[in-house]
Specification:
The chain is of the alpha+beta class. It has three domains: 75 residues, Cyclin A, domain 1 (Orthogonal Bundle); 41 residues, no CATH class; 53 residues, Orthogonal Bundle (Arc Repressor Mutant, subunit A), CATH 1.10.10.10. It is 54% helix and 12% strand. The chain contains ten helices and five strands. A three-stranded antiparallel beta sheet has the order 3-5-4. The protein has a two-stranded antiparallel sheet with strand order 1-2. It starts with 6 loop residues before the first helix and ends with a strand.
Length: 197
């Protein structure tokens, strides 16, 4: 994700808790829409320099993700807060000291732990260690299918999903912009591509 850190100079977030609780509220409605919501608030804070602790920004992201805003607000003030507190308790129980921290658990309680940003293969190996017979689910690597599933993609994300080299991915993305299929948003620290509205 391209990051413009000026939000912390211009309108700093005083806590990560409100957007985290809002994400839990979104999960209570719809898991797939919650992922779109999370992506939306990440883009708001990191690219658009919006303070995502403010309700108006969370409501906009909810609307853009197809969530019921009134239900989100209700859940935000009740069950989502309780679910978030349970997550914090679980993080303490697991000994989480930083992010990202990913725990993979097998059926017999065995656990694999990955700390920090790692290549996809590390996560795959952790799953296969716990579930050696797991089979990868295939997906279409066609650009249209990917942009129908994901609302926006960086060149790195597109590279990983398509399984092509970075320069090939960027050329394809830029060609799709020239053809009018995608729009390219440029920030001072990177680009992101979206389906053209």
């Amino acid at each position: 994700m391209p990051i413009d850190g000026d939000v912390w100079l211009e309108d700093p977030l005083d806590s990560s808790y409100p957007p985290s609780i809002a994400f839990k509220a979104a999960q209570l409605q719809d898991q797939e829409k919650a992922i779109l919501f999370l992506r939306g608030i990440r883009e708001m804070v990191f690219m658009q320099k919006k303070n995502i602790t403010r309700w108006e920004h969370l409501a906009t992201a909810a609307k853009n993700s197809g969530l019921d805003i009134e239900q989100l607000k209700s859940d935000f003030e009740g069950p989502a807060k309780t679910a978030f507190e349970a997550d914090l308790k679980a993080a303490r129980a697991y000994g989480v000291k930083g992010f990202p921290s990913l725990f993979f658990e097998g059926n017999n309680g065995e656990r694999e732990f990955i700390y920090g940003a790692k290549p996809y293969t590390h996560y795959e190996m952790a799953v296969l260690k716990l579930y050696p017979n797991a089979i990868k689910t295939g997906y279409s690597k066609d650009w249209e299918a990917l942009f129908c599933k994901y609302t926006s993609l960086t060149a790195k994300e597109f590279t990983e999903l398509c399984g092509v080299k970075r320069n090939v991915a960027e050329q394809l993305l830029n060609d799709l912009v020239l053809k009018g299929n995608l729009e390219k948003l440029i920030t001072k620290n990177g680009c992101i591509w979206r389906l053209k509205a």
